Amino acid sequence: MRKDINRRSFLKLLGGGAVASSALLAACKQEKENKDGRGEPPKGKMTMRVNPNTGDKVSLLGYGMMRLPMEGGADMKDNQDAPIDQEMVNRQVDYAIEHGVNYFDTSPAYCRGLSEKATGIALSRHKRSEYFIATKMSNFSPESQSRQGSIDIFENSLKELQVDYIDYLLLHAIGGGNDALETFNTRFMDNGILDWLVEQKKKGRIRNLGFSYHGDVSIYDMLLKWHDEGRYHWDFVQIELNYLDWNYADEINPRNTDAVYLYGELQKRGIPAVIMEPLLGGRLANVPDPIVEKMKAKRHEDSVASWAFRFAGTPTGVLTVLSGMTYMEHLQENLWTYSPLEPISEEENGFLMEIAKDIYDLKTIPCNECNYCMPCPYGINIPAIFSHYNKCIKEGNMPRHLEDSEYARQRRAFLIGYDRSVPRLRQANHCIGCGQCVEHCPQRIDIPKEMRKIDEFVESMKDPMQTLKKAQEAIE
User: Fold this and answer.
1) Which of 4, 196, 205, 243 is most buried as measured by Cβ atoms within 10 A of its Cβ?
2) In terms of C-beta density within 10 A (0-12 exposed, 13-18 middle, 19 or more buried), how is residue 212 classed?
3) pTM score, two decimals?
Protein backbone atom coordinates (compact mmCIF):
# COMPACT_ATOMS: atom_id res chain seq x y z
CA MET A 1 0.00 0.00 0.00
CA ARG A 2 2.80 2.41 0.90
CA LYS A 3 4.73 2.30 -2.34
CA ASP A 4 2.67 0.66 -5.05
CA ILE A 5 0.11 3.38 -5.68
CA ASN A 6 1.01 4.87 -9.04
CA ARG A 7 -0.37 7.96 -10.66
CA ARG A 8 -3.45 6.23 -12.05
CA SER A 9 -4.17 4.52 -8.74
CA PHE A 10 -3.95 7.89 -7.00
CA LEU A 11 -6.76 9.21 -9.18
CA LYS A 12 -8.85 6.13 -8.39
CA LEU A 13 -8.40 6.86 -4.70
CA LEU A 14 -9.54 10.40 -5.31
CA GLY A 15 -12.81 9.08 -6.69
CA GLY A 16 -15.51 11.61 -7.44
CA GLY A 17 -13.46 14.43 -5.98
CA ALA A 18 -11.28 14.48 -9.09
CA VAL A 19 -14.17 14.51 -11.56
CA ALA A 20 -15.13 18.09 -12.35
CA SER A 21 -18.14 18.86 -14.50
CA SER A 22 -17.86 21.23 -17.42
CA ALA A 23 -20.01 23.68 -15.46
CA LEU A 24 -17.56 23.65 -12.56
CA LEU A 25 -14.59 24.14 -14.87
CA ALA A 26 -16.37 27.01 -16.57
CA ALA A 27 -17.09 28.57 -13.18
CA CYS A 28 -13.47 28.14 -12.16
CA LYS A 29 -12.35 29.77 -15.40
CA GLN A 30 -14.62 32.74 -14.78
CA GLU A 31 -13.38 33.10 -11.22
CA LYS A 32 -9.77 32.92 -12.48
CA GLU A 33 -10.54 35.76 -14.85
CA ASN A 34 -11.96 37.74 -11.96
CA LYS A 35 -8.96 36.87 -9.86
CA ASP A 36 -6.60 38.41 -12.38
CA GLY A 37 -7.97 41.77 -11.29
CA ARG A 38 -7.12 40.86 -7.68
CA GLY A 39 -10.53 41.78 -6.40
CA GLU A 40 -12.21 40.23 -3.38
CA PRO A 41 -12.45 36.42 -3.22
CA PRO A 42 -15.99 35.29 -4.06
CA LYS A 43 -18.57 34.74 -1.34
CA GLY A 44 -20.84 31.71 -1.29
CA LYS A 45 -18.46 29.61 -3.42
CA MET A 46 -16.50 27.76 -0.72
CA THR A 47 -16.24 24.01 -1.39
CA MET A 48 -17.92 22.15 1.47
CA ARG A 49 -17.45 18.56 2.61
CA VAL A 50 -19.96 16.54 4.65
CA ASN A 51 -18.88 14.71 7.79
CA PRO A 52 -20.57 11.29 7.49
CA ASN A 53 -20.71 10.91 11.28
CA THR A 54 -22.64 14.07 12.08
CA GLY A 55 -23.79 15.55 8.79
CA ASP A 56 -21.70 18.68 9.48
CA LYS A 57 -21.07 20.71 6.33
CA VAL A 58 -17.44 21.66 6.81
CA SER A 59 -15.47 24.16 4.75
CA LEU A 60 -12.67 22.54 2.76
CA LEU A 61 -10.42 25.36 3.97
CA GLY A 62 -9.81 25.10 7.69
CA TYR A 63 -8.26 27.94 9.69
CA GLY A 64 -5.20 26.77 11.64
CA MET A 65 -4.74 29.01 14.70
CA MET A 66 -1.11 28.05 15.33
CA ARG A 67 0.58 31.00 13.61
CA LEU A 68 -1.52 33.99 14.63
CA PRO A 69 -0.57 37.57 13.71
CA MET A 70 1.57 39.34 16.30
CA GLU A 71 1.51 43.00 17.24
CA GLY A 72 3.78 45.18 15.13
CA GLY A 73 3.93 42.49 12.43
CA ALA A 74 6.39 40.43 14.50
CA ASP A 75 7.19 36.85 13.55
CA MET A 76 6.91 34.42 16.47
CA LYS A 77 9.89 32.54 15.05
CA ASP A 78 12.06 35.57 15.72
CA ASN A 79 10.23 37.18 18.64
CA GLN A 80 8.87 34.66 21.11
CA ASP A 81 7.56 37.39 23.43
CA ALA A 82 5.51 39.48 20.99
CA PRO A 83 1.83 39.69 22.01
CA ILE A 84 -0.91 38.41 19.70
CA ASP A 85 -2.59 41.10 17.62
CA GLN A 86 -6.15 40.37 18.76
CA GLU A 87 -7.66 43.07 16.57
CA MET A 88 -6.12 41.47 13.49
CA VAL A 89 -7.18 37.98 14.61
CA ASN A 90 -10.75 39.25 14.97
CA ARG A 91 -10.66 40.88 11.55
CA GLN A 92 -9.30 37.78 9.80
CA VAL A 93 -11.72 35.41 11.54
CA ASP A 94 -14.62 37.69 10.55
CA TYR A 95 -13.39 37.72 6.95
CA ALA A 96 -12.95 33.94 6.91
CA ILE A 97 -16.48 33.29 8.20
CA GLU A 98 -17.90 35.84 5.78
CA HIS A 99 -16.29 33.85 2.93
CA GLY A 100 -17.49 30.44 4.07
CA VAL A 101 -14.74 29.15 6.39
CA ASN A 102 -16.27 27.44 9.43
CA TYR A 103 -13.57 25.08 10.81
CA PHE A 104 -11.07 26.57 13.28
CA ASP A 105 -8.26 24.43 14.68
CA THR A 106 -6.36 25.39 17.84
CA SER A 107 -4.58 23.82 20.82
CA PRO A 108 -3.62 24.70 24.41
CA ALA A 109 -0.01 24.45 23.21
CA TYR A 110 -0.18 26.96 20.34
CA CYS A 111 1.19 30.50 20.48
CA ARG A 112 2.79 30.08 23.91
CA GLY A 113 -0.52 28.81 25.27
CA LEU A 114 -2.46 31.88 24.07
CA SER A 115 -4.10 30.58 20.90
CA GLU A 116 -7.27 29.19 22.50
CA LYS A 117 -7.97 32.47 24.28
CA ALA A 118 -7.43 34.55 21.14
CA THR A 119 -9.55 32.12 19.11
CA GLY A 120 -12.31 32.20 21.71
CA ILE A 121 -12.42 35.99 21.75
CA ALA A 122 -12.67 36.14 17.95
CA LEU A 123 -15.26 33.39 17.51
CA SER A 124 -17.48 34.32 20.47
CA ARG A 125 -18.52 37.40 18.51
CA HIS A 126 -20.34 35.08 16.09
CA LYS A 127 -23.27 32.69 16.43
CA ARG A 128 -22.17 29.29 17.76
CA SER A 129 -23.88 27.64 14.78
CA GLU A 130 -21.56 29.47 12.38
CA TYR A 131 -18.36 27.64 13.28
CA PHE A 132 -16.81 24.35 14.35
CA ILE A 133 -14.01 24.37 16.91
CA ALA A 134 -11.24 21.78 16.94
CA THR A 135 -8.83 21.68 19.84
CA LYS A 136 -6.56 19.10 21.40
CA MET A 137 -5.64 17.15 24.49
CA SER A 138 -2.11 18.59 24.55
CA ASN A 139 -0.96 16.95 27.79
CA PHE A 140 2.74 16.91 26.95
CA SER A 141 4.23 18.10 30.25
CA PRO A 142 4.61 15.60 33.14
CA GLU A 143 2.36 17.64 35.44
CA SER A 144 -0.47 17.59 32.87
CA GLN A 145 -0.37 13.83 32.37
CA SER A 146 -2.15 12.93 35.60
CA ARG A 147 -5.86 12.27 35.27
CA GLN A 148 -6.75 15.55 36.96
CA GLY A 149 -4.10 17.45 35.03
CA SER A 150 -5.55 16.27 31.72
CA ILE A 151 -9.11 16.99 32.84
CA ASP A 152 -8.02 20.50 33.77
CA ILE A 153 -6.66 20.98 30.24
CA PHE A 154 -10.02 20.06 28.73
CA GLU A 155 -12.01 22.23 31.12
CA ASN A 156 -9.70 25.16 30.52
CA SER A 157 -10.14 24.74 26.75
CA LEU A 158 -13.89 25.18 27.17
CA LYS A 159 -13.30 28.26 29.29
CA GLU A 160 -10.77 29.90 26.95
CA LEU A 161 -12.82 29.11 23.84
CA GLN A 162 -15.99 30.35 25.56
CA VAL A 163 -18.04 27.29 24.55
CA ASP A 164 -20.00 24.49 26.23
CA TYR A 165 -18.78 21.76 23.88
CA ILE A 166 -15.93 21.00 21.48
CA ASP A 167 -16.87 20.01 17.94
CA TYR A 168 -13.64 18.15 17.13
CA LEU A 169 -11.39 16.99 19.98
CA LEU A 170 -8.03 15.38 19.15
CA LEU A 171 -5.52 13.35 21.08
CA HIS A 172 -2.59 15.58 20.19
CA ALA A 173 0.41 14.16 18.31
CA ILE A 174 0.09 10.45 18.98
CA GLY A 175 3.18 8.43 18.10
CA GLY A 176 5.61 10.99 19.50
CA GLY A 177 8.24 10.59 22.18
CA ASN A 178 11.38 8.50 22.38
CA ASP A 179 9.31 5.47 23.38
CA ALA A 180 6.08 6.09 21.48
CA LEU A 181 4.03 3.34 23.12
CA GLU A 182 5.09 4.26 26.65
CA THR A 183 4.42 7.93 25.91
CA PHE A 184 0.97 7.14 24.53
CA ASN A 185 0.06 4.99 27.51
CA THR A 186 1.29 7.62 29.96
CA ARG A 187 -0.67 10.42 28.28
CA PHE A 188 -3.93 8.65 27.51
CA MET A 189 -4.29 5.13 28.95
CA ASP A 190 -2.66 4.77 32.38
CA ASN A 191 -4.49 7.86 33.63
CA GLY A 192 -7.81 6.75 32.11
CA ILE A 193 -8.18 10.01 30.22
CA LEU A 194 -9.13 8.44 26.89
CA ASP A 195 -12.07 6.66 28.52
CA TRP A 196 -12.95 9.92 30.27
CA LEU A 197 -13.03 11.71 26.90
CA VAL A 198 -15.33 9.00 25.52
CA GLU A 199 -17.66 9.72 28.44
CA GLN A 200 -17.58 13.44 27.66
CA LYS A 201 -18.59 12.61 24.11
CA LYS A 202 -21.57 10.65 25.39
CA LYS A 203 -22.53 13.68 27.47
CA GLY A 204 -22.41 15.94 24.41
CA ARG A 205 -19.38 17.93 25.52
CA ILE A 206 -17.42 16.49 22.59
CA ARG A 207 -19.12 15.93 19.23
CA ASN A 208 -16.28 14.20 17.34
CA LEU A 209 -13.29 12.39 18.87
CA GLY A 210 -10.12 11.73 16.91
CA PHE A 211 -6.36 12.10 16.99
CA SER A 212 -3.52 13.82 15.17
CA TYR A 213 -0.60 11.65 14.11
CA HIS A 214 3.10 12.49 14.27
CA GLY A 215 5.73 9.82 14.66
CA ASP A 216 5.80 6.07 15.14
CA VAL A 217 3.45 4.44 12.63
CA SER A 218 2.95 1.42 14.89
CA ILE A 219 0.89 3.62 17.23
CA TYR A 220 -1.16 4.87 14.26
CA ASP A 221 -1.80 1.28 13.21
CA MET A 222 -2.67 0.27 16.78
CA LEU A 223 -5.33 2.96 17.13
CA LEU A 224 -6.87 2.05 13.78
CA LYS A 225 -6.92 -1.61 14.85
CA TRP A 226 -8.84 -0.54 17.98
CA HIS A 227 -11.30 1.17 15.65
CA ASP A 228 -11.73 -2.05 13.63
CA GLU A 229 -12.27 -4.05 16.80
CA GLY A 230 -14.85 -1.61 18.16
CA ARG A 231 -12.70 -0.78 21.18
CA TYR A 232 -12.67 2.93 20.30
CA HIS A 233 -14.42 4.74 17.46
CA TRP A 234 -12.49 7.48 15.69
CA ASP A 235 -14.74 10.07 14.09
CA PHE A 236 -11.84 11.67 12.21
CA VAL A 237 -8.03 11.58 12.06
CA GLN A 238 -5.61 14.42 11.33
CA ILE A 239 -2.63 13.54 9.15
CA GLU A 240 0.12 15.33 7.26
CA LEU A 241 -0.56 15.19 3.53
CA ASN A 242 1.04 17.06 0.67
CA TYR A 243 2.51 16.17 -2.69
CA LEU A 244 6.05 15.84 -1.29
CA ASP A 245 5.07 13.62 1.65
CA TRP A 246 2.82 11.49 -0.54
CA ASN A 247 5.76 9.25 -1.50
CA TYR A 248 8.86 10.85 0.04
CA ALA A 249 8.13 11.35 3.76
CA ASP A 250 10.02 8.26 4.90
CA GLU A 251 12.85 8.83 2.44
CA ILE A 252 13.39 12.37 3.70
CA ASN A 253 13.25 11.07 7.27
CA PRO A 254 13.06 7.28 7.90
CA ARG A 255 11.08 7.91 11.09
CA ASN A 256 8.20 9.50 9.14
CA THR A 257 5.45 7.75 7.16
CA ASP A 258 4.37 8.37 3.58
CA ALA A 259 1.01 10.12 3.24
CA VAL A 260 -0.11 7.55 0.67
CA TYR A 261 -0.21 4.98 3.48
CA LEU A 262 -1.76 7.22 6.13
CA TYR A 263 -4.51 8.38 3.80
CA GLY A 264 -5.11 4.91 2.37
CA GLU A 265 -5.68 3.39 5.81
CA LEU A 266 -8.30 6.01 6.65
CA GLN A 267 -9.98 5.69 3.28
CA LYS A 268 -10.34 1.91 3.72
CA ARG A 269 -12.26 2.52 6.93
CA GLY A 270 -14.28 5.51 5.81
CA ILE A 271 -12.71 7.72 8.47
CA PRO A 272 -12.71 11.41 7.46
CA ALA A 273 -9.22 12.91 7.13
CA VAL A 274 -8.28 16.36 8.36
CA ILE A 275 -5.16 17.53 6.55
CA MET A 276 -2.32 19.42 8.20
CA GLU A 277 0.87 20.79 6.67
CA PRO A 278 -0.37 21.05 3.06
CA LEU A 279 2.55 23.47 2.52
CA LEU A 280 5.02 21.73 4.86
CA GLY A 281 5.34 24.82 7.02
CA GLY A 282 5.65 27.03 3.95
CA ARG A 283 8.34 24.96 2.21
CA LEU A 284 6.04 24.15 -0.72
CA ALA A 285 5.24 27.83 -1.18
CA ASN A 286 8.92 28.77 -1.22
CA VAL A 287 10.44 26.45 -3.78
CA PRO A 288 13.53 27.23 -5.92
CA ASP A 289 13.11 29.46 -8.95
CA PRO A 290 13.52 26.66 -11.54
CA ILE A 291 10.58 24.81 -9.95
CA VAL A 292 8.54 28.02 -9.83
CA GLU A 293 9.17 28.43 -13.55
CA LYS A 294 7.91 24.91 -14.24
CA MET A 295 4.72 25.55 -12.29
CA LYS A 296 4.12 28.93 -13.90
CA ALA A 297 4.63 27.41 -17.33
CA LYS A 298 1.90 24.92 -16.52
CA ARG A 299 -0.62 27.37 -15.00
CA HIS A 300 0.78 30.87 -15.23
CA GLU A 301 -2.13 32.47 -13.35
CA ASP A 302 -1.79 30.24 -10.27
CA SER A 303 0.48 30.67 -7.27
CA VAL A 304 2.94 27.99 -6.23
CA ALA A 305 1.01 27.51 -2.97
CA SER A 306 -2.28 26.90 -4.78
CA TRP A 307 -0.84 23.75 -6.38
CA ALA A 308 -0.22 22.28 -2.93
CA PHE A 309 -3.65 23.25 -1.62
CA ARG A 310 -5.41 21.82 -4.65
CA PHE A 311 -3.51 18.55 -4.20
CA ALA A 312 -4.37 18.33 -0.50
CA GLY A 313 -8.04 19.11 -1.07
CA THR A 314 -8.68 16.77 -3.99
CA PRO A 315 -8.80 13.26 -2.39
CA THR A 316 -12.14 11.74 -1.47
CA GLY A 317 -12.58 11.55 2.27
CA VAL A 318 -10.70 14.76 3.03
CA LEU A 319 -12.94 16.78 5.35
CA THR A 320 -10.89 19.96 5.61
CA VAL A 321 -7.38 21.24 4.87
CA LEU A 322 -5.77 23.33 7.59
CA SER A 323 -3.72 26.39 6.87
CA GLY A 324 -1.97 28.62 9.39
CA MET A 325 -2.92 31.94 7.81
CA THR A 326 -0.94 34.58 9.66
CA TYR A 327 -1.68 37.41 7.25
CA MET A 328 -4.78 38.51 5.36
CA GLU A 329 -3.12 37.83 2.01
CA HIS A 330 -2.62 34.18 3.02
CA LEU A 331 -6.32 33.91 3.80
CA GLN A 332 -7.40 35.59 0.57
CA GLU A 333 -5.11 33.42 -1.55
CA ASN A 334 -6.49 30.22 -0.02
CA LEU A 335 -10.06 31.44 -0.36
CA TRP A 336 -9.49 31.84 -4.08
CA THR A 337 -8.15 28.28 -4.30
CA TYR A 338 -11.09 26.67 -2.51
CA SER A 339 -13.94 28.92 -3.71
CA PRO A 340 -14.53 26.53 -5.37
CA LEU A 341 -11.83 23.86 -5.56
CA GLU A 342 -10.70 22.84 -9.03
CA PRO A 343 -9.53 19.26 -8.36
CA ILE A 344 -6.12 18.05 -9.48
CA SER A 345 -6.35 16.15 -12.75
CA GLU A 346 -4.51 12.94 -13.50
CA GLU A 347 -2.05 14.77 -15.73
CA GLU A 348 -1.45 17.44 -13.08
CA ASN A 349 -0.91 14.77 -10.44
CA GLY A 350 1.85 13.24 -12.58
CA PHE A 351 3.39 16.69 -12.94
CA LEU A 352 3.37 17.22 -9.14
CA MET A 353 5.04 13.86 -8.58
CA GLU A 354 7.87 15.08 -10.84
CA ILE A 355 8.05 18.32 -8.85
CA ALA A 356 8.19 16.30 -5.63
CA LYS A 357 11.20 14.40 -6.98
CA ASP A 358 12.93 17.70 -7.83
CA ILE A 359 12.34 19.00 -4.28
CA TYR A 360 13.44 15.74 -2.68
CA ASP A 361 16.72 15.90 -4.59
CA LEU A 362 17.52 19.21 -2.87
CA LYS A 363 18.12 17.31 0.43
CA THR A 364 16.90 20.10 2.70
CA ILE A 365 16.21 19.61 6.42
CA PRO A 366 12.49 18.72 6.79
CA CYS A 367 11.71 21.50 9.29
CA ASN A 368 8.20 23.00 9.10
CA GLU A 369 9.00 25.88 11.50
CA CYS A 370 6.14 24.79 13.76
CA ASN A 371 8.13 25.91 16.85
CA TYR A 372 7.23 22.78 18.84
CA CYS A 373 10.95 22.50 19.66
CA MET A 374 10.98 25.98 21.18
CA PRO A 375 11.97 27.50 23.45
CA CYS A 376 15.41 25.90 23.60
CA PRO A 377 16.71 25.92 27.21
CA TYR A 378 20.03 27.22 25.88
CA GLY A 379 18.51 29.97 23.74
CA ILE A 380 19.18 28.44 20.32
CA ASN A 381 16.80 29.57 17.58
CA ILE A 382 16.33 26.14 16.01
CA PRO A 383 13.69 27.02 13.36
CA ALA A 384 15.61 30.10 12.20
CA ILE A 385 18.85 28.11 11.78
CA PHE A 386 17.13 25.42 9.72
CA SER A 387 15.25 28.06 7.74
CA HIS A 388 18.45 29.84 6.71
CA TYR A 389 20.19 26.58 5.82
CA ASN A 390 17.27 25.45 3.66
CA LYS A 391 16.88 28.88 2.09
CA CYS A 392 20.48 28.86 0.92
CA ILE A 393 20.05 25.44 -0.65
CA LYS A 394 16.92 26.59 -2.49
CA GLU A 395 18.49 29.84 -3.67
CA GLY A 396 21.74 28.26 -4.82
CA ASN A 397 23.84 29.90 -2.10
CA MET A 398 25.23 26.70 -0.65
CA PRO A 399 29.03 26.78 -1.11
CA ARG A 400 30.39 23.34 -1.95
CA HIS A 401 33.84 23.35 -3.52
CA LEU A 402 36.72 25.81 -3.24
CA GLU A 403 37.45 25.48 -6.94
CA ASP A 404 33.90 26.48 -7.85
CA SER A 405 33.83 29.94 -9.44
CA GLU A 406 30.75 30.78 -7.33
CA TYR A 407 32.28 29.65 -4.03
CA ALA A 408 33.33 33.10 -2.77
CA ARG A 409 29.94 34.66 -3.52
CA GLN A 410 28.03 31.74 -2.02
CA ARG A 411 30.25 31.67 1.08
CA ARG A 412 29.71 35.37 1.69
CA ALA A 413 25.94 35.09 1.15
CA PHE A 414 25.65 32.14 3.54
CA LEU A 415 27.76 33.60 6.38
CA ILE A 416 26.39 37.14 6.22
CA GLY A 417 22.84 35.84 5.90
CA TYR A 418 23.39 33.51 8.85
CA ASP A 419 24.45 36.36 11.14
CA ARG A 420 21.54 38.48 9.97
CA SER A 421 18.97 35.70 10.38
CA VAL A 422 20.17 34.30 13.69
CA PRO A 423 21.91 36.28 16.49
CA ARG A 424 25.31 34.74 17.21
CA LEU A 425 24.40 33.66 20.73
CA ARG A 426 21.48 31.69 19.27
CA GLN A 427 23.40 29.88 16.52
CA ALA A 428 24.11 26.16 16.14
CA ASN A 429 27.53 26.25 17.83
CA HIS A 430 25.81 26.82 21.19
CA CYS A 431 23.91 23.51 21.02
CA ILE A 432 25.11 21.15 23.77
CA GLY A 433 23.16 18.17 22.42
CA CYS A 434 20.80 17.84 25.39
CA GLY A 435 18.11 16.42 23.10
CA GLN A 436 15.15 18.02 24.91
CA CYS A 437 13.88 19.29 21.58
CA VAL A 438 13.85 15.94 19.79
CA GLU A 439 10.75 14.39 21.33
CA HIS A 440 8.71 17.51 20.57
CA CYS A 441 9.54 17.57 16.83
CA PRO A 442 6.57 16.39 14.71
CA GLN A 443 8.98 15.68 11.83
CA ARG A 444 11.13 13.57 14.18
CA ILE A 445 14.31 15.39 13.14
CA ASP A 446 17.47 14.49 15.03
CA ILE A 447 17.95 18.16 15.88
CA PRO A 448 21.29 17.87 17.80
CA LYS A 449 22.76 15.92 14.88
CA GLU A 450 21.63 18.55 12.38
CA MET A 451 22.96 21.32 14.63
CA ARG A 452 26.38 19.65 14.69
CA LYS A 453 26.31 19.27 10.92
CA ILE A 454 25.44 22.94 10.37
CA ASP A 455 28.00 24.13 12.94
CA GLU A 456 30.75 22.08 11.27
CA PHE A 457 29.68 23.44 7.90
CA VAL A 458 29.83 27.04 9.16
CA GLU A 459 33.25 26.51 10.76
CA SER A 460 34.57 25.00 7.53
CA MET A 461 33.61 28.17 5.66
CA LYS A 462 35.22 30.47 8.19
CA ASP A 463 38.59 28.93 7.36
CA PRO A 464 38.16 27.13 4.03
CA MET A 465 41.90 26.66 3.44
CA GLN A 466 42.32 24.87 6.76
CA THR A 467 39.38 22.65 5.89
CA LEU A 468 40.94 21.84 2.52
CA LYS A 469 44.24 21.00 4.22
CA LYS A 470 42.51 18.61 6.63
CA ALA A 471 40.71 16.94 3.74
CA GLN A 472 43.97 16.49 1.86
CA GLU A 473 45.66 15.04 4.94
CA ALA A 474 42.79 12.60 5.36
CA ILE A 475 43.18 11.44 1.78
CA GLU A 476 46.94 10.99 2.17
Assistant:
1) 243
2) buried
3) 0.78
